[in-house]
Design goal:
By secondary structure, the chain is α/β, with parallel strands linked by helices. It has three domains: 3-138, P-loop containing nucleotide triphosphate hydrolases (Rossmann fold, 3-Layer(aba) Sandwich), CATH 3.40.50.300; 144-203, Helicase, Ruva Protein, domain 3 (Orthogonal Bundle), CATH 1.10.8; 209-299, Zinc Finger, Delta Prime, domain 3 (Up-down Bundle). It contains 14 helices and seven strands. It has helices at 3-16, 32-44, 63-75, 97-109, 128-132, 144-157, 164-174, 178-189, 197-203, 209-220, 224-237, 242-253, 260-278, 283-299; strands at 22-25, 52-56, 85-90, 114-120, 135-138, 161-162, 194-195. The strands form two sheets. The protein has a five-stranded parallel beta sheet. Strands 6-7 form a two-stranded parallel ribbon. Helix 6 (144-157) runs parallel beside helix 8, helix 7 runs parallel beside helix 9 (197-203) and helix 12 runs antiparallel to helix 13. It is elongated.
Length: 300
Amino acid sequence: MGQEQIVKRLKSYVVTKNLPHLLFSGPPGVGKTAAAISIVKEIYGEGWRNNFIELNASDERGIDVVRHKVKDFARMAPLGGAEFKVIFLDEADALTGDAQAALRRTMERYSATCRFILSCNYSSKIIEPIQSRCAVYRFRSLSEEAVKKRIRHIAEKENLKVTEDGLEAIKYVARGDMRKAINALQAAALMGDQVDMQTIYEITAQARPEQIRELITVALKGDFLGARGILDQLLLVQGLSGQDVIVQIHREALDLEIPDQAKVRLIDRIGEIDFRLTEGANERIQLEALLAYLSLSAGS
């Protein structure tokens, strides 16, 4: 569901001041926490903190959190004439199975005076009994245009000059994550009055897309040493990690103008290299092995 439709539906809860239990799921940086806090501020106004508690379940993920912190807050009567209080559990998919089972009972018992908003990246990690008690909203990654529009707005308010190629770079780096986009803009703004492409890629420790495409293209032409030289530039001069490089290679590989069968074999090999890096293999050896595979593919 797009954020526009979600906002429209959430506004109806604010208007009626009647809130069900809510479950927000979706990737990071798409507005789940912001939506939860905005709802509470709209309903309670100035005194919103009196009837609201936010807990990060990834920090406190055991059953004791539900038995004590959550239950103690839930059993207290709402303040200021409010009909209910709100408990916001961020990253609820980090809660243990026992904690979720205890939460299910707490949600039932105190539903008259307390509402729960749960936020998670993966709704599949939330047990079915909790999902069935909530109105589920699935957020999706923000569109590229939405990211650019918001960055322009922030830049205007902060009197920052962002070049067009700088906007494109922020869009590429963010990949639909507004938090990542704003962090990149803020870090780049500290380095000068103008935010451009070069600055964005430097502060986010990412290679330019054309560098990664050149790396793959040179290797596919059979020039292993040439590709290795580009890899040296990325790892030694720009200071990228092997994991950063492999993620960007995967991203660019999908747009290569090569036969589909070759693309499938390449993605399969990238997945293998990524697994080895995750398991602690030497990143330099593994990335050179990938380049060697691409170079050998050129002769086959």
